[in-house]
User: Fold this.
Amino acid sequence: MHSIRFHFFAFIAALLLILLVLLNTYPLISSRDLVFEEKRSSLSSQASVVASSLSGLETLNRPGVEEVLRVLDVSGLSRILVADGQGRALYDSGGREDGSGDIAAALSGKVVFRSRFADSAFASSCAMPISSQGSTVGVVYLCETDTERAGLILDVQNRIMIVSLLIAVLSLALVLLFSEVLLRRVGELVRSMRIVAAGDYAHRLAVRGQDEIAELGGEFNLLTERLDENERQRRRFVSDASHELKTPLASIRLLADSVVQNDNVDAATMREFMADIGSEAERLQRTTEKLLDLSRLDDDIQVAPEPVDLRQTAIDALVMLRPLAGEKRVAIHSRLDDGCVIMANNDDAFHILFNLLENAVKYNVPDGSVTLTLEHDEESVTLTVADTGIGIPEEDRLNIFSRFYRVDKARSREAGGSGLGLSIVHDAVLAHGGSITVGANKPQGSVFIVSFPRATSEETGI
Ligand SMILES: Nc1ncnc2c1ncn2[C@@H]1O[C@H](COP(=O)(O)OP(=O)(O)OP(=O)(O)O)[C@@H](O)[C@H]1O
Ligand SMILES: [Mg+2]
Assistant:
């Protein structure tokens, strides 16, 4: 938990250190170099003026040198030394500098310049040969100590140092503050995650601000919401499913008990009871089969989709429903276009058509009718099942695709319905990229419209 703060802090501190070291050295070094450069040119030009004036003398001796120096402006120098051709001092204004080495070098014809920055001063010196008729007759050695420039530079250095310290303290404090705030928010997120992980799906994180952490918090809340919803659905499903299974099981048990407990049941009653047990068992079987279909659709492990010609599927479903339609005195009309091919799997397509048509027949009125149309354009295939039946009240239309939802519970159960048919239809339609809507038929009844993306010629291979 603390390592991020440590890394962050160490990183910023290292960056600051590099920056401040650079700030404290580079400008000073370069301004020192500038001063050295300037000293070299001023001191050597002064030395060459003195040297050339002295070379004009007939003989190089102390009175002559003093005479020349009086005329020339040589103020501002800390030492002036003039030596003869053997390096003996003819004139020396006095000073602590040891110039013997430089003077010896100048006697061999070289100009020697030195400058250094020490003890809060620039100490510079220049030794220059005095030449007369091509030979070196002596040496001028000038020294200068500049404390003014050095003082300026030291002053700037001090200021930069103070400012640097201020910057360092301030930025480290800011970094600490910033990382504290950031980590506290991350900590809140982690705490929320732990709460949700412990099972409190109703928990939500209070999201503040607009930044990435806020975004993370928002995403976390969305995730939790979905988890919450899933959990609620799962619970509802389990309780609904057990309830659905419990009812026929209770009937079976009741029927079986009454057979067992009554000694003198006649054969006809016995048969009636057995038939009832059989039909309850059949209902159980239908429900469990539908539950299996649903869980297969939930699993998302879809068989690779293949081209399915809905016209053929519709004909198969219509054949299966003919007995029920006859029994209910419901007429089925159909208009099935060619080329209504979608990418799906045969079982799912059959479930969709069969369940919609079965409902349209089951929830119809005597002498009513069902109209099935199948048509397509370039991109989509549309399947419409319209009936003249009892209709679905508007407030129920949103719910009829939910598992175990029945509009009229008693009537539907009587008809053997489990309330799962439309949720299978709904899940299967979505699994194959389609959409489904329900509306009212005129003057009465319902219309279900399902639309699928039409299979392309590449997919069908035709
Ligand atoms: N065409 C329709 N006309 C009127 N009501 C309908 C129609 N289709 C569905 N319903 C209503 O919607 C409910 C849900 O339908 P669904 O097909 O999911 O379940 P079911 O028919 O009751 O049972 P199952 O199809 O599982 O045997 C039905 O109980 C019925 O009340
Ligand atoms: Mg149904």
